[in-house]
């Protein structure tokens, strides 16, 4: 019998919950007064915080106890103070200060723990700490300069558009309709589903991914179309139409998902910036077309250096945005990487399949898929800035649109390299962009008609 209990007793003991001290076991219901509800400070800023620990009633007078005051996340904020038994008065009270220093933007909390038994006790109410990022450049500078570079890119692309083919696209808008459905139905659904799966309960990150999927593509998608010999006329037309329709679709999506599912009534739509950007886009494309019609000699220079100019403008746009927001990569996680890879890949495949189901040519299907999968970097940042997210939460979620846009460009670069290596990056039909044919047509227009002498 004794041998049986020798084996059963350890199993029973292991099955019991571990004995852990709870708040109030060591010193009664001791209390902490932080003197304020929260603490907000900037990076590298130090703040002395007055504390009052009282109602300490140690149950074992001979016990050697101490209180530890510390920051929950030392990478965000630092604070360290130890209060020993002899620093308390006879009533079990202590007053003093602890210095809290902001390290990196984000959230932390100030915690108070009592040590003196087998297990420490932690005060249940912590002091929230918000560390704000030290501003180096005004956010408006990034927005305005990025917009100027993007508009210059559209002016550059407008000079190579063909009015006859644009008219054909407008008269039979199957391609733009596919682009609209992909941008405002498929992509928001993908962004919403990925966000809910990767960040359950974290609506700011879900919202950042949703805005990344919802934002219409910019000039980078048109530049990518040039390099992969897609239908540039269709690409620019789709970008322009999506930018104009953003004034209608963004409010609808934000009202349906942003307020109901994310439970936030402060989400707003920056109508002024969206409408101004759409109008400027149309104006720049129109100016480019007029330059081609009225000043052909000038546009020949643009034709010759179209790809280098596009690359330089794209690198400037990406470099400016990333350079001024480099801090966001400190918040990089595996969830961000999965979302940044999955969203453009799923968008590309879904759009390409939808295009082929509607009997679009290979060139048009490729163009629409690239238009959908190359993500905008500036528009989601503008949408997040208007969403009334408080700092530092806004800075924390900017990692999503910036990473997703960069990853989509990297994926396209790999796609382009594979096409070149396999010999697939060739003109497939008359709608495909052909730089050599464009140059030949421009030279023929400059030379004028030739007549043979009778």
UniProtKB/TrEMBL annotation:
<feature type="transmembrane region" description="Helical">
    <location>
        <begin position="274"/>
        <end position="293"/>
    </location>
</feature>
<keyword id="KW-0812">Transmembrane</keyword>
<feature type="transmembrane region" description="Helical">
    <location>
        <begin position="366"/>
        <end position="384"/>
    </location>
</feature>
<feature type="transmembrane region" description="Helical">
    <location>
        <begin position="334"/>
        <end position="354"/>
    </location>
</feature>
<keyword id="KW-1133">Transmembrane helix</keyword>
<feature type="transmembrane region" description="Helical">
    <location>
        <begin position="173"/>
        <end position="195"/>
    </location>
</feature>
<dbReference type="GO" id="GO:0016020">
    <property type="term" value="C:membrane"/>
</dbReference>
<keyword id="KW-0769">Symport</keyword>
<feature type="transmembrane region" description="Helical">
    <location>
        <begin position="396"/>
        <end position="418"/>
    </location>
</feature>
<dbReference type="InterPro" id="IPR038770">
    <property type="entry name" value="Na+/solute_symporter_sf"/>
</dbReference>
<feature type="transmembrane region" description="Helical">
    <location>
        <begin position="207"/>
        <end position="228"/>
    </location>
</feature>
<feature type="transmembrane region" description="Helical">
    <location>
        <begin position="305"/>
        <end position="328"/>
    </location>
</feature>
<keyword id="KW-0472">Membrane</keyword>
<dbReference type="InterPro" id="IPR002657">
    <property type="entry name" value="BilAc:Na_symport/Acr3"/>
</dbReference>
<dbReference type="GO" id="GO:0015293">
    <property type="term" value="F:symporter activity"/>
</dbReference>
<feature type="transmembrane region" description="Helical">
    <location>
        <begin position="141"/>
        <end position="161"/>
    </location>
</feature>
<dbReference type="Pfam" id="PF01758">
    <property type="entry name" value="SBF"/>
</dbReference>
<comment type="similarity">
    <text>Belongs to the bile acid:sodium symporter (BASS) (TC 2.A.28) family.</text>
</comment>
<keyword id="KW-0732">Signal</keyword>
<feature type="transmembrane region" description="Helical">
    <location>
        <begin position="240"/>
        <end position="262"/>
    </location>
</feature>
<keyword id="KW-0813">Transport</keyword>
<feature type="signal peptide">
    <location>
        <begin position="1"/>
        <end position="21"/>
    </location>
</feature>
<protein>
    <recommendedName>
        <fullName>P3 protein</fullName>
    </recommendedName>
</protein>
<dbReference type="InterPro" id="IPR004710">
    <property type="entry name" value="Bilac:Na_transpt"/>
</dbReference>
